[in-house]
Amino acid sequence: MTGDFVIVGSGIAGLRAAIALAPHGRVLLLTKADPRAGSTGYAQGGIAAAVGPDDSPDRHAQDTLIASDGLADEIAVRTLVTDGPRYVRELVEWGAAFDREARGGFDLTREGAHSVRRVLHARDATGREIGRVLAARVAAEPRVTLIDHATAVRLLADEPGDRIAGVRFLDRAGRVTDARARATLIATGGAGHVFRETTNPPVACGDGIALAYLAGAAVVDLEFVQFHPTALAVPGVPRYLLSEALRGEGGRLVNADGEAFMTRYDPRGDLASRDRVARAIVRESDRTGAPVCLTMAHMDAEAVRARFPLIASLCARAGLDLGRDRLPVGPAAHYLMGGVATDLDGRTSLPGLYAAGEAACTGVHGANRLASNSLLEGLVFGGRAGAAMAGQKDDDWPVARPALWRGTGATGPGSPSITESELRELMWTHAGVFRDRAGLAAARDRLDAAWRAIDEPGEARSAVTADGWRLTSLLTVGRLVVRAALRREESRGAHSRTDFPERDDLHWSRRVFETR
User: Fold this and answer.
1) Is the pTM value of this prediction over 0.90?
2) Positions marked catalytic
3) Fold of the 408-515 domain
């Protein structure tokens, strides 16, 4: 199977790239499950862009840089916030139905660490609405072919580190197919299922990061995992995300005594950045010995349910009323700030390979993502990657991304000596909201032992299955997260070390890249 371009992933970044590429050649779009099963459709809160009368790209950039805890790439941030309004208005022109005020302007909301209202939303199903619009555009492009239930298992290259010439995948029947192309985009989303507790859909297990790393691409910033502070924490019920927009519209975090406690931990209270809120919830729960709750009960219950119908429905499934009940909440793995290292046009360290969206890392989020910048990142950098792929030239590489740390590859045949549930429990226990050297070292040793037993990655033999690849992805990314968290001996953004509780700008005001 051959084409001009291959895209792995059908979320916001992959779809926007496909739209950019369609006028320039044949595009093969591979998606692991149903095209709507990824994280884009789960994004409730909204998309941040400087479109309000009291806002500007400079102000959006400043908020993003502050949230990043000193580690964001300022050029990447300014690219995001400057290009963002144009891409958002393009969505509106294509039919995106963002909520409006009575006078016709955008009904903007505010979320944690934003200084103004700048988040556009479609009720509480913004990602679903954006996905609908982009999917319709892609479906109308005759040169885009979508194959669903296709599991990518290897990037095609003569040797690790060589020019990438496509991808090997398993179809829904388990048959192996090679899709060759002159440019390949990784847009597979995040890796929340590396952890026991996550808001992510089941497909989010780090496939694209694993594919790129095993082929020899540089990865970066994988210690920075954002734990969303308010996932519904009801035993036996999925960890439904309770959007930050709830607090943006007046929701409060309270302890077992009904006390609003957040100002004890941060002067911004309930609208502090996500890393600080997540840690505050854990500490307050430990202090009181009881769960922390989110409440909207002091507000108009009918208005709350009307503003957040999807979240109200999810709460009702758990037997709770969003407008009246206290909702038990706790942190859950939500977003990976790190990923495959790229430049501002999606180029990775491997010729012919691009990455965009959550699987990629331009440095735009630094150590902590500002709320609702994720959809914007996928939209902007997906579009930029598509444009770069269309005009790809041989002298586009090498990309100036130094590998400051080198890892070791897998050795010898075999199967991982760890189960998925064991891996996820290990990661949650030792690489979760709070970390320390002893726990991380124990996790590293366990994952290294499992890593040494896996098959030489990407071999197309009968033993390769979708389930086997899933575990390989989880193991690969989990191991990279632990290694990165162990070597960064400070606390910064979403990375919190109890044995190194302070931010250390003297030694760690830098990003660390790793290659296989």
Assistant:
1) yes
2) 274
3) Methane Monooxygenase Hydroxylase; Chain G, domain 1 (1.20.58)
